Amino acid sequence: MTTVLDSRLLGDVLRDILRPFDLPPVEDVATRRQLARTLLSGRDNGSFDGLALAYAVIAFRASTEDGAVQVLEAVRDNADALVLDGVLGGYVLLPCAQDDHLALARDLHDRLGAEVWMGVAWAPRRDLGAARATAEDVLRIASGRAPGVYELRNVLADFAVLRQPHVTERLVRVIEPVVAQPPLLDALRAFIAEDGNRAAAARRLDIHRSTLDHRLRLIERLTGCRPTSPRGLLTLSVALTAHSAPEVPLPRTH
User: Fold this and answer.
1) What does the alpha-carbon distance between residue 165 and residue 241 come to, in Å, rounded to a whole number?
2) 225: which of 9, 28, 40, 206 lies 20 to 30 Å off by Cα?
3) DSSP states of 35-73 as a string?
């Protein structure tokens, strides 16, 4: 039977393992930034004594420079955090156990007053390069959605497609005729945002439902995908992501 004392001792041990205790002071921004760059590039050879064994990797993008500054200010006094920042986006590394990474990212996002998108992944130190790449791709996909915190499972279909360039190119060709006609593009985006609910999508666009139905039929004619079927709507949604997913303004890690 585990006693209260045993639980406290276990907690102390876990904190010692997961929290850095030999980092440069928070005032030494340049050194901490270079350390973050090294970890995110995957060049950590295990020589950094005292670093945490695992981290949440948060790739973020803000709609304004002030928004990016808010992210930095929110973690400025966190002695455990490592930051690699750019003008509109960057990375935050926070030591944590595997099941805590999403909660940490959401807590950080909740303290911001700006439009900020976050892609979050978790990995032990040796795999932080791969985690950074995953967080980047999640952020790239999420940037076309509402501001918030996203992880891989939230964008899994889009993620799988974007990792296959030949599939991406084909989907871009499928959706281009729709993108070229703003009324159809707006209709498709609203229909996707409302999870295929035609009445809600029509209200969002402030048009009659019959007008929306007409536009959805035109989309099917142009693409060969029926928006009102689950499979067709998923294909069109991923095609839009493939066409419009931006290059996120993140600092280089190499």
Assistant:
1) 13
2) 206
3) HHHHHHTT---S--TT--SEEEEEEEEESSHHHHHHHHH
Q: How many degrees, rounded to 5, is the angle at CA 203 between CA 214 and CA 242?
A: 65
Q: Choose among 20, 10, 42, 43: nearest CA to 123.
A: 42
* Structure confidence by residue, pLDDT tens digits, 2-50: 454 454 455 444 444 444 446 777 778 888 899 999 999 988 766 666 7
Angstrom distance (rounded) from CA 81 to CA 133: 19
The secondary element (H helix, E strand) that includes residue 206 is: none
What value does the CA radius of gyration of the chain take, rounded to a whole number of Å? 22
CA–CA dist 24, 80 (Å, integer): 10
Amino acid letter for position 37 = R
How many Cβ atoms are within 10 Å of 56's Cβ, its own excluded?
25
Please state the length of the chain. Answer: 254
- Residue 242 burial (C-beta neighbours within 10 Å; 0-12, 13-18, 19+): buried
Euclidean distance between CA atoms 194 and 222, whole angstroms = 22
Query: Could you tell me which of 132, 172, 166, 168 has the C-alpha nearest to residue 152?
Result: 132
Q: Could you tell me the two tokens for 70?
A: 């808010």
Most confident of 12-26, 46-60, 92-106: 92-106
d(CA 113, CA 106) in angstroms, rounded, equals 13
